[in-house]
Amino acid sequence: MVKITKIEIKNFKAFYGTYQIALHEAGKNLLIYGENGSGKTSLYKALELFLDSSENDTIDFKDHQNLFNADKGYIKLHLRTNPTSNEHVYEWSDDVKETVEPLIVAASKSKGFLDYKALLHTHYLHYENDTVNVFNLLIENLLANVINDTTGQSISEEWQNISDQLPLAPTHDIDTFEAQIDTFNVGLATQLEKLQTKASEILHKFGYEDTFVALDFGFQGIMYDRTRETLSNPGIPLKVKFFDEDIRSHHRFLNEAKLSAIALSIYFAGFLLQPESDLKILALDDVLIGLDMSNRIPVLDILDEHFSEEDYQIFLTTYDKTWYEIAKQYTDEKDWKYTEFYFKTTGEYEIPVCKEDSPYLEKAKEYFDASDYKACAIYVRTAFEALIEGFCESKHLFVKYYRNPNKRDSDHFWKAIKIENKKRIEKQNPVLLNQGLIKKIELYRTRILNPLSHANIINIHKEELKNTIDAVEQLKNALA
Fold this sequence. Notes:
The longest helix is centred in the middle third of the chain and has 31 residues. The protein contains 15 helices and 16 strands. The chain is 41% helix and 19% strand. The two termini are 41 Å apart. The protein is elongated, with a radius of gyration of 27 Å.
């Protein structure tokens, strides 16, 4: 299997500047915690649009360029078959489109991408109706690339071919047309049976046995109405039994957790029916918002059992820090990489800060050299925050605690370090920081090194910023 070993993103959607996420030579799965607006969905869209662009010429990179950076951007995927094989890099940008390579095209057909908005299509968007019709969802999306075993064509291709023939020309052979519809019906019914079986199996993982919640796709087949010269019965109603009782309006009756579990089971089952490819990506962006904690753990079991590392590379994002920490403990660290996204603001635009990107101070220097002083200030401030937080944690220093991390202030960590420094002086032990360095940090904390809250950065002077970078670098060496 081919795996992504590194993702490079430059000036794409929320990503301002250049970001690199390394996934090891083995191509690990990726679990991301991210605040809302921190860039995790932009990463999800980067992967999705990269693959989609291989088959859709209307997708232009420039339509997704970061609004606040005029430099041309790109997305690059580094791929390996195994840790010792040669690395291949594919780029998608306004100037380069290497996504048309057969490997990427095949990956696009086999991919599984799901966000919380997509889950709405199985239930919530039908709230005004008595039943849930999933025909368009399955034909145009979930089963679109699934192959009809009889014809060798995809479900979506067959349906498009049938639809394009309407209205029928006077000379059209209706019997041939109806035979084509029958073939489509048989192929779709076969795939729906597979989908129903697999979805029910996955639903069991959430603790819902068939006697509790049972699924059924009530497909009766498409027919051609010769009188009206139209197609009739284009529907796939999703039927749900609850304790062996047919629930006509289950989307109004069942609670959100059950509806989300049903939706996830249908999508996971659909992903497992996709065509084979050497690169298979499963990306889930905040899909667990409708599940309580007891229902979230089964998702990890499902991923482990049905989407193993031998067949898939998984990208899982969440804005729930508690869930993120639980998932970290639950997953096997050999197969997973963990990272966190945050955002900072310059007063004019926001910048994602990726914990696993290149060192913050190095990024600050990169932006300084590029004369992007506001972005530089974001990273030197982040470097300072990460440095003092990490030191206090490693030395078990007492710091004021807040349940809400947004209430934390860098002053709490800085004071803890100064107190520790004072104790060492009193005991005549080697000090952490000399008074000259302390004065420098105190000076720059009033402007560049703002508190951990997302304060605006304004009126930045080049020389002051350079001195701040030097001071933080000295602090880093002193605390090492």
